Amino acid sequence: QVQLVESGGGLVQAGGSLRLSCVAAGKLPMGWFRQAPGKEREFVAAISRNGGRTSYADSAKGRFTISRDNAKNTVYLQMNSLSAEDTAIYYCAASASINYDYTPRNVAGYNYWGQGTQVTVSS
User: Fold this and answer.
1) In sequence order, what are the residues at sequence separation of 6 or more whose Cβ sits closer than 8 angstroms to the Cβ of residue 30?
2) Count of CB atoms within 10 A of residue 76's CB?
3) 53 and 103 in contact (C-beta within 8 Å)?
4) What is the pLDDT of residues 2-49, one digit of tens each?
5) Hey, is 116 helix, strand or coil?
6) Is the pLDDT of residue 94 over 90?
7) What digits encode the pLDDT tens for the residues 107-121?
8) Could you give the count of Cα atoms lying within 13 Å of 53 in the half-sphere of its Cβ?
């Protein structure tokens, strides 16, 4: 069992920035998802085991950056130019795949999930 612990959520004004962190041992393929009230959980970004490959949802491209520091067992999601539409609970996820290029974009591609961290953007 892999435990994931997210942090960094909070309240920010529109146009502002936040950086989310997720600590997870194992150097696994990692992803960030979000879920707004009344909506399905949606993909935000993913990063491969060594950080050499990344993938983003269209809504995140150009504004969000996913990165990782394997020495610290931590994956980050830097979010810039936030808007009210980004308000959601953000979840960190890890895949059990050993494929070095694996960056799944759907919920089924992940085996482990964090508890979520709330991001609220005020307009």
Assistant:
1) 22, 24, 46, 47, 66, 68, 75, 92, 93, 94, 95
2) 19
3) yes
4) 899 999 999 999 999 999 999 998 889 999 999 999 999 999 999 999
5) coil
6) yes
7) 999 999 999 999 999
8) 11
Can you tell me which residue has the tokens 């892999």? Answer: 2
- Nearest to residue 43, comparing CAs of 30, 55, 34? 34
User: pLDDT-based confidence at 100, cuts 50/70/90?
Assistant: confident
20 is written with which tokens?
Answer: 């989310």
Q: How far is CA 105 from the centre of its chain?
A: 11
Q: Return left, alpha or beta for 34; rule: phi > 0 is left, psi -120 to 50 is alpha, else beta.
A: beta
